[in-house]
Amino acid sequence: MSADLPFRELAIQVIYLASSVFFILGLRGLSGPEKARGGMAQAAFGMLLAIIGTLLHQDIVRFDWIVAGLVIGSFIGVVIGRPLFISVPMTAMPQWVALSHAAGAVAATLVGINEYLQLGALAPRGTMGALGFEVFLGALTVTGSVMAFGKLQEILPGRPVTWPFQNFGNLLLLATALGLIVTLVINPGLSTAFWVLTAIAAALGVLMVLPIGGADMPVVISLLNAYAGLSASAMGFAIDNNLLIIVGALDGTSGLLLSILMCRAMNRSFTNVLFGAFGATVKAAGKSVEGQEMRPITPDDAAVRLAYAGLVIVVPGYGLAVAQAQHALRELTEQLEKRGVEVKYAIHPVAGRMPGHMNVLLAEANVPYDKLYDMDEINADFNRCDVALVIGANDVVNPAARSDPASPIYGMPILDVDRARSVIVLKRGKGAGFAGIENELFFHPKTAMLFGDAKASLSRLVTELKAV
């Protein structure tokens, strides 16, 4: 049996190495929508290898709880991924992503707590430091993700919830938590410090996310993803697991880089997102909308305008997801293409409620990947666009970001929809977007508003288009 241990350990490390390779390949596949499905399959296979490798550890003395966890977790995953008993609409994907972050962070936090309960005052200083960061980032991610879920699910207010001295208080709690980690490294036997650290981390997750508005949720979700990854990496150092170190580092760095890219897409800084309470008040963009009215259009007039266009650029937003209108949109674009109309889709980096939300939504309706263009690729085409069809998008097409220094979104890169020859906007009502400001585009003389549920409006457009 003793001769079997080195071989088993070698097999585990080989499996972990293969798992890490598949995780890296999966992450690379997610860099583009045409490779995303393959990337997810590679990452899933990497996770399967990781589970197999873990089950080979000789430290496991009983498998009943492990098997129960595998069965329950697999069942939940199947139900969410393949709606057998419940249906998770695409609008709820950001919420489920937030909850998945919370679930991973719960695992990391519980492992950290269990390790501390076993080691206590005997914990080596390096291990204690890793445990401190693991529990701190894990507990913060758990409660922060739950708060993000609550905001996205509209259980909690989507607007920023602020209070006096909130930033000072949060920074004070953060400094206290870091001080407690240092204290535990010096003296691991101070169990009270460990539990206070855990409580402060959980409180920080709540207090840091509540003041962040719904418009910034894509950044929050990717940042929480980074926290969960860093917590897993710290767990790897604490329990001497190379796979967790590698995968956690991948998750943490990719989430951080994605958060930075999302901030750049909004021309915002991390500090502004985390501490700025963006969207706290509703106000006008600053000019050019006073005394002007939105110009409605009927479905039959809109269908005629679309039917005789040379190039139509579709700009999807969260309203498309809310109305579950992606399949109706696909049918409309197919009708246009049968008439010889060129159709492209313009995707803003922060459209929707999570990174890549619009890509996933349109992929569900089997929209070809080669028709999806990001902001930098498509903006030059608006000058030759006959009709820009905006569906449920608001702030990402607001010209005030270019023209109005008084606007809170001034400097944010936008899709240049206002440069198209004509614009049709599908919108449920006349309310402002998540940034809380009026959109100059909706009042522009070249813009026509088709009010109503996006799915119903698109279906009506299909019917009218067939009659043209």
Low-confidence stretches: 278-288
Span between termini = 80 Å
Note the main sheet: 6 strands, parallel
- Specify the structural class: alpha/beta
Tally of helical segments: 17
Instruction: Work out the strand percent.
Output: 5-15%
Q: Globular, elongated, flat, extended or rod-shaped: what is the shape? A: globular
Strands of the biggest beta sheet: in what spatial order? Answer: 3-2-1-4-5-6
Number of strands: 6
Q: What's the average pLDDT?
A: 84
Output the radius of gyration: 25 Å
Oligomer: single chain
Write the H/E string, N to C: HHHHHHHHHHHEHHEHEHEHEEH
Q: Give the helix level as a range of percent.
A: 55-70%
Write the layout of secondary structure elements.
Elements: H1 4-29, H2 36-55, H3 64-81, H4 93-119, H5 125-152, H6 166-186, H7 191-209, H8 217-239, H9 242-265, H10 270-275, H11 299-307, E1 311-316, H12 318-322, H13 326-338, E2 342-347, H14 357-364, E3 372-374, H15 375-378, E4 387-391, H16 400-403, E5 423-427, E6 447-451, H17 454-467
Parallel strand pairs: 1-2, 1-4, 2-3, 4-5, 5-6
